[in-house]
Amino acid sequence: MVPGLASRLLAWQVLEAVAAGAYADVALERQLGRSRLAGPDRGLATELAYGAIRQRLLLDAWIDAHGRVPAHRQPPRLRWLLHLGLYQLLFCSRVPVAAAISTSVELAKRQGLARLAPVVNAMLRAVAQRRGSLGLEASAAPWLGLDLPVDPASSLSLRRSLPLPLVKDLLSWRGAAEAEAFAEASNRPPSLDLRVQVLRSSRQSVLESFAAAGIAAVALEDLPSGISLPGRRGDLSRLPGFAEGHWSVQDRSAQRIAPQLDVHPGMRVLDACAAPGGKTTHLAELLGDMGELWAVDRSESRLRRLCANAERLGLRCIRPLAADATEPDALPAGPFERILLDAPCTGLGTLSRHADARWHLPSLEELLPLQRRLLDSLASRLTPDGRLLYATCSVDPRENELQAQAFLERHDGWQLLHQQQWWPGEASGGDGFHASLLAPPGFRAEAVAR
User: How far apart are CA 157 and CA 110, in angstroms?
Assistant: First the structure.
């Protein structure tokens, strides 16, 4: 096998699977499970697959600029192979130009596209020559050499490979500079963050175990249980402390959600839409594993994953329930002192984490009514001095601030105690998240200081 060809073949297979409707992470996991790739080869396949999926719009623009046939009319397998080669030319400065071209041509010859191998060769060479004629370094911006649209929204959409409707929204919400920062962050490989299970270990102990194993790890200073593993990928279950339940994977922004409920040992807490359970297990740890924590979700299979993770972490206070939280009668008997609603949303804050999500965003026409029904259903299950935390991993104000405001308008006497929006691209890093802390009419203001 030509060096590096297996990694590129696997990435190409992932691109084809995603084009056929598979989720990128599922397709990649399936292909890696079937392969013998390890170490750097595994990392290269992951980078190429996810990168080419994120950059689909920009890569198509290069095909449109240098091909006789527009990208959307190219044979699908050829289109995705061209994406694979173009991504290496435009984004992988450590991959020699000759290697990016030759391996793409070789794949065409070996995988049933031999008659189109000259097309692959000509297209990639044309792009490389175009960039070279401009004197561009390999690390130069990947859109340089293209004729960009004059319209700012269309230009940003093409340069950062984001859907145009989303870019128009971003510009209206944030302005040009911050929309650019969001777009750049959405194309950056996400950080790998961990949350230490403080009932079983300490952050210092976990850091020392990683150091002893030669694994780079740093403390997230603004998060008492947070750790980040720079550049780490691969099978996390092999890392020190995983089997012992000393930590779990959770993005740094997500780690900021559960503490806002200010839970205490012995409380009765409800986590609606709980699976896959990152915030559920965080709540259990904050409860000291003492109390009653109901984890409600419609998906039994996702609840099983939640329970498996809770067992690994040694948490016993979690009570799983497969139910629809929009139906009050389906919920456990109330009331609850704290309720977390991590609502279904567009996930706009997690585009870097889910490479293909930008190409099939959920419809707000369905999500907004669902979020309203969930809020209204859960509001009736709170104690008079309790708190309800409404959270999403979105940055769309219609799902966030405006949804919380509409709830307050429907429910007399309810209060907004705190509201915060985290954006991808901010100095703190991490995904985009929103949190609105709500309190019912019987809430005592002095209780906030508890």
Answer: 35
